[in-house]
Every structure is written in structure tokens, then in C-alpha cells.
Amino acid sequence: MDDWDPRDPSVLEDQRRAYDDMREQCPVAHSEFMGWSLFRHQDVTDVLADPETYSSASRHPAIPNGMDPPLHGRYRDALAPRFSAVQVGALEPRCRRIAADLLEPMLAGGEAEFMDAFATPFPLKTLCAFLGWPEQLWECLGGWTHGNQQAAFTRDPAAGKALASLFSEHVKANLAAHRASPDTVDDVTDGLLATSVEGRALDDEQIVNILRNWTAGHGTVAAGLSILVLHLAEQPKLQQRLRADPSLIPMAVEEIMRADDPLVANRRTTTREVEIQGGTIPEGASLTLMWIAANRDPRAFEDPEAVRLHRGIDAGLVWGQGIHVCLGAPLARLEMRVALEELLARTQRFELVGEAPRRAVYPSNGLGALPLRFG
User: Fold this and answer.
1) Closest Cα partner for 32 from 155, 159, 156?
2) If DSSP codes are grouped into helix, strand and coil, which group holds residue 272?
3) Sheet strands (E) in the chain
4) Domain count, the chain
5) Is residue 59 part of a domain?
6) Of 208, 221, 319, 368, which alpha carbon lies 20 to 30 A from 142's?
7) Residue 298: CATH number of its domain
8) Rounded to whole angstroms, how far apart are CA atoms 219 and 211?
9) Is residue 243 part of a domain?
10) pLDDT above 80 (res 192)
11) Euclidean distance between the first and final Cα of the chain, in Å?
12) What percent of the residues of the chain are helix, what percent strand, and what percent coil, each to the nearest 5?
């Protein structure tokens, strides 16, 4: 018997409130759709700290997120240099130009729909720059990501397979272009082509797999941007505080997203029978770690719904924790910081137009639309 239905309209209408309620009333809940869901911060961090008991291995290859030790560590160590401070830092001027090019026409009209005008194209164009791909591919990547999310929600394997094939074609075409132009600037795609694991170079299928994982992350950045800008539009005093002191922006990014996480959940599988909150979960069971609920747990955060810039990020789970902590976090942090710096510097204020916008639903927690007025 299921304890709840994650796809019930009452849940999707306000995911944060529904997950908060589950955390307090039924912290370990079963459903056919999600398996066993964990809502409390301590339970989630216990799982993250024990990859031997709680496996990340997936039915379909996923490098490195869908791997367990020791293989996970070998691939992660090989890929980590792509997100080094030097590699990501070198992207900042280009990232800032992309932001400026999108903001200029958006702000010129006085009002705009932020998701279409900025939040969606910005991380996709930045990803293209990061990978060394033509910027015009951003729309193809965006279509793939949106379709993939829909296929995940509806559990449509045929649609997922077709999208995977389309994505593979795009990646392999770009790999061929890089191989044909060895004198181009050294970028992340060149780095992947030169990467070896256990003495063997990554093959095209492995690189497709890696980039499928990285590209899906753009949706989290877009959702995060929508959440950040919505919060600032609704909190003009904080907006002005960040405008007056941009050094506070990185802290604001972390804390706003802790209170309103753009990523709903993550999965694990039990490798043995376990007991959590007094209940027994069998070996081979699917676990869903509810980031949103854990990040708003009053047992871990005093007054968890309040945004406090100096709260600190040690307990936060925005980027995960443990061996699978988000590899792309340095890039995502760069994108969000630059986006807010440029938006705040080019405006005196911004505010919502009309009623509060409707939220996206699982597996995202961003906004479908965000109409804004700029001054």
C-alpha cells in the first residue's frame, strides 16, 4: 500500500509545502512512482555517507553519477580537471558577454518574460561555450533537455530512447568536427577527447554518456535562476542590498536555493536490508532522496524558510554531499553569480508583473514563466 502519490495534483500544486508536510508526518514514505522517499536531512545525509549500502549504479550507463566505487572514483578523478578553478575561471569573460547580450534586449523593452528571454538560453549558450560547440546549438540542446524531463515524468521509454539517439548524433558530429580541426582553441571537448581512464582513452559512446549528464544539468541552472530572480523580485530590500554589495551574491545564491532547491530529488538503491526511522526497507529497493524537504528541515536549519545570507553552507544539500557531490557545481555557481551581477548592475529595480507565477513540477522546481518589469 502506498503512503502517498507524488504525482497527485495536490502535491504538484505546491511541491515545497507537500514535501515539508511529508517530512513531518511520514518521513519515510513509499509510492509506486518513487519507491521509498526520504524527507529528513539526517536520513538523507546518512545515505549519502554510505555508498556501499546505498548504490548509485543505474540500469542505463551514466558516467560517473550512475557508478559506484571504485569505478566511480576513477572516472570522476579523470573528469574533475574539466571543472577546475582554472578551466571554469577562463570561461567567465565569455559567460559575462553571453549574459550581457541577452540582457540588453530584454531590459530595453521595460518588461519581459524572464524564462524565455534569459533563464533558458543563458545556461545553454554558456554550456556551448564551455564545450567549444557552435552557440546556435543551444536550441537543440534545450529541446532535448525539455523532452527528456517529460519522458522521465511520464515514464515513456520510447520517447527517452528517441531523444537519446538524437542527442548522440549531435555529440558525435561535434566530436568529429573537433578531431578534424586539431588547431582550434583547447576547450572542454578537446579535453574529453584527450582523457584516459585506466590507460584507455574515452570512446565516443562514453563521451556521449558524460555529456548527456552534463547537458541535463542546464535545466537545474535555469530553474535556479528563476528561483533566485523570483525571490529578489519579491524581496526588494534584499535585491537592493545585493545591488549595493555584489560580494554578497555568492552567499545569496547558496541560501536562496537551500530554502527553495531547484532540484527535487535524487535516487539510490539499497544493497542490503536497512532500517530507517523504525521501518524496514528491503534489499534492492529504490530510494528517492528529497533534496527540497531535507534542505528545509528544522532539525538541521533554524527557521528553515528564512533566507539568512550568513547562515553558512556546510549543512546545505543544494549540490549534494559525499562522493557524488555535484561535479559541475563550479560552473553552475559561476553562471548564477554572473547572471545576478549583470542583472543587478544593469537595473535599479525589477518586480513581478501580475500574480505569482506557476511553478514547474517534478523533476524540476523552477518556474514555467516569470514576467518581470524593470526599472
Assistant:
1) 155
2) coil
3) 28-31, 35-38, 54-55, 111-113, 196-197, 200-201, 265-270, 274-276, 279-281, 286-290, 350-352, 371-374
4) 1
5) yes
6) 319
7) 1.10.630.10
8) 14
9) yes
10) yes
11) 54
12) 55, 10, 35
Name the band, by pLDDT with cuts 50, 70 and 90, for residue 183.
low
How does DSSP assign 300-355, residue by residue?
A: TSSSTTS--TTS-STT--TT--GGGS-TTHHHHHHHHHHHHHHHHHT-S-EEE-SS
User: Distance between CA 22 and CA 33 in Å, rounded?
Assistant: 16
Task: Name, in order, each residue with C-beta under 8 angstroms of 368's C-beta and a sequence gap of 6 or more.
Answer: 115, 357, 358, 359, 360
Please name the helix (run of DSSP H) or strand (run of DSSP E) that holds residue 27, with its range, or none: none
Cα separation values, 24 from 28, 314, 318, 329, Å: 10, 23, 20, 30
Transcribe 72-120 into DSSP letters.
HHHHHHHHGGGGSHHHHHTTHHHHHHHHHHHHHHHHHTSEEEHIIIIIT
Given phi > 0 = left and psi -120 to 50 = alpha, else beta, which region is 143?
alpha
| pLDDT for res 339 | 99
Which residues are bridge partners to 201 per DSSP? 196
Which amino acid makes up residue 336? Answer: M
Locate 282 and state its grid cell: 528491503
Question: Cis omega (within 30 of 0) on the bond before 69?
Answer: no
Q: Could you tell me if 327 and 80 are in contact, meaning their C-beta atoms sit under 8 angstroms apart? A: yes
Q: What is the distance of C-alpha 244 from the center of its chain? A: 28
**Phi (first) and psi of residue 23, to 5 degrees:** -60, -40
* Domain extent for 240: 9-374
Running DSSP on this structure, what letter comes out for residue 3?
S
**Euclidean distance between CA atoms 79 and 254, whole angstroms:** 24
Q: What is the residue-averaged pLDDT of the chain?
A: 93
Question: Whole-prediction pTM value?
Answer: 0.94
SS3 189: helix
Q: Is residue 321 part of a domain?
A: yes
How far apart CA 177 and CA 122 sit, in angstroms, is 24
**Alpha carbon distance 13, 19 (integer Å):** 11
Cell triple for residue 187? 576547450
Nearest-angstrom CA–CA distance, 330 and 77 = 15
Q: Assess contact for 340 and 228: CB atoms under 8 A.
A: yes
Residue 202 resides in a domain: yes
